[in-house]
Amino acid sequence: MADQVAPENPTPAAAPTVRPKQRVSHRGRSAGGRASSNQQEGKVEEFEPFMLMPRGPPPLTEYLDIFDVDVLKQPNEVNKQAHHTHLYSSNFLIVRRAQEFQIKITFNRPYKPAEDKFAVEFVIGPVPQYSKGTYIPVFPTAKRQSVWSGRVIESSENVVTMGITPSAECIVGKYMTYIGVETPYGIRRTRRDPNTDIYILFNPWSPADPVFLDDEEEREECVMNELGIIYHGAYDDVSERAWNYGQFEFGVLDACLFVMDKADMPLSNRGDVVKVTRVASAMLNSRDDDGVLVGNWSGDYMYGVPPTSWTGSVEILLDHANSSGTPVCYAQCWVYAAVFNTFLRCLGIPSRVVTNFFSAHDNDGNLKMDIILDENGKLDRNRTKDSIWNYHCWNECYMARPDLPSGFGGWQVVDATPQETSDGMFRCGPASVAAIKHGQICYPFDAPFVFAEVNSDVVFYRRRKDGILEVVKVNQTHVGRMVLTKAVLHSGRRDITNQYKFPEGSPEERRVLEKAEEFGCQREKSSPALSDVDVEIHSLDVNVGENFDVTLQFTNRSDQRRTADVYITGTVVYYTGVPSGEVVFKTPKVKLEPMQSKEEKVLVRSEDYMNKLVEQRNIHFIATGKIKETGQIITAMKVIAMHHPKLTVKVTGSPRVSEEMYVSVEFTNPFKFSLENVDLRVEGPGVLPFKYKQYSVIAPGTSITWTEAFSPRRAGSTKVFAKLDCAALRQVYGETELTVQE
């Protein structure tokens, strides 16, 4: 074809009409703008006249003047020590509400209480209003008091030390501070000085604050502890991952306040812990509001960080805030829970990460997880839609619930993982744990969903040829098998299952389920006869890359012979229970003599599963079958969580504050194939900021050693931990403990 030559003066195509983007205005709707930003500052006049002054402010040299304002913000000074905020890496004063803090004001002459009138003024947001709690004057005498109280602690020469107590319901956030002196002509104020800004947080140490937690060890663990342990794996083979919450690291507090700004949350609501946690539950995920984290369960993490690679919350929150709110990629449930935990502890709300093993995600809105079998007892995956997560992580936070009846305060479930919508947004909670335990799921927020996560029944249906579903077995103990959280002030685990439910089969449990039914939960009422043949899949420890045998134990409890036609399926699954690829399918015929027990072994070869494994390295085995003589169905399920190779983490040097030390991370590739694009991350709360290194290839049998220098920033016991991550190998972990001296 001949080359085409463009004409010298082509006729331009008609340009599309572009309408200018209209500016949205609130004019005509409200007199002032919406006060929903802690970053924006309202203008505060240095002189506020009482009368019309046509010639400007008069000379005020003979009246009281302020030379200096010292908010006593150093970590070793009285405020931060008394308010338990000395660990925050910040250049500002950070205090807690419902507790007195001190400031020192230096005047131009001695203060005369009978003559001089002044106030310490606190302003938050762009539209300060006394009625909204965004403008608070605090006076030095009891005769003039506002919603915050003030008093003169000491007056010496020209310096006045004043004590100020914020109210127990005040807005949580960053306040600007001014000193206003009253003159006959008007109020004269200090100039705007960012050095006097203060942050006010929730106060779990004060009985007046709704987040009050009357247990010192629990407060140390659930507010002050930066080092977390998150449980995962299987209920009978629990694994741990350490996490740096980093709630005291530089910039994290501002990042948490930015989350509420981005949610357009009114400042006047930010003193209500119920509203704060509910808004944050939505904002920690990005599903409908461009929140902090993008969820991804696909296994393809090309455009972000794999969820298994994160070691802490600091990097995530700072990336989100520094990018003006761009969501961070990627997260799964434990990442959502860990970052949410940082948010809560940073603002002073007692919180902990909780793991529920075999957590139901019920698609039908009832208390039944439906598993469909065909007429011969074989699993029908096409018709089985409900999923049981091997584990699911959420948060609990501690608060009073004045909106609920007495007894339903305390620990509340909040969950940022986007599973289902609540009031039109992907969020969950706060839902009272006590209400869930007692079946009182009529109370807000989202209690029915959480109740189903720990109480659903697994119902096996046999689908007949005519399409009718027949209930053949109900397992009432599989879901919510165990609920774990970190123990208080040590690295052990704490089983809190009894806080969510009464013992299986107890009279109390039956009453709770009946109560839940009164509020709309649907249960399976049929009770099919139990089979006289039992099948059980044994637990076993397996390392990735090994061949192994799965052992099934068949037991005939009858006095007659039994023959079982069995289907054994082994499927690689995501930890959410979603299948990825089948690796084993066997159909043995098992013959059992009366009262006989027999084992059946199934070989699983590494070459059958290695190229199908997803990041959690879980294989779900399910055995179903039909007893020839009775037509009864037998079932058993087991998740085998394969163990990963470990990293070796070592620290050397003098463990003292500001002394140079070294951390070394060692790893050997144990496989017969190369690992490519390998990410290594290491950090240690309070001692080692996040570090990152990438290796393009680690050949089979090859070892690597990565060494980094660091200087501990503060004394105390902590951990240094590292993670290795690549497409072929996820969740490789190592740690070492470290005690730093002053």
Task: Explain what this protein looks like in three dimensions.
This protein is mainly beta. It has 4 domains: 47-201, Immunoglobulin-like (Sandwich), CATH 2.60.40; 216-518, Alpha-Beta Complex (Coagulation Factor XIII, Chain A, domain 2); 533-641, Sandwich (Immunoglobulin-like); 648-740, Immunoglobulin-like, CATH 2.60.40. Helices cover 12% and strands 38% of the residues. Strands 1, 3, 5, 6, 9, 10 and 11 form a 7-stranded mixed β-sheet that branches. A 6-stranded antiparallel β-sheet has the order 22-19-18-16-25-26, with helices on both faces. A hairpin with a 2-residue loop joins strand 20 and strand 21. Helix 3 packs across helix 5. The protein is elongated.
- What's the β-strand tally? 41
Beta-strand share of residues: 35-45%
Number of domains: 4
Task: Look at the helices and sheets and give the structural class.
Answer: mainly beta
Q: From the alpha carbons, calculate the radius of gyration and give it in angstroms.
A: 31 Å
User: What is the CATH C-level name of the largest domain?
Assistant: Alpha Beta
Architecture of the largest domain, CATH level 2?
Answer: Alpha-Beta Complex
Mean pLDDT: 90
Q: Main beta sheet, described? A: 7 strands, mixed
Helix percentage range: 10-25%
CATH fold group of the largest domain: Coagulation Factor XIII, Chain A, domain 2
pLDDT < 50 stretches:
1-21
CATH superfamily of the largest domain: Transglutaminase-like
Shape: elongated
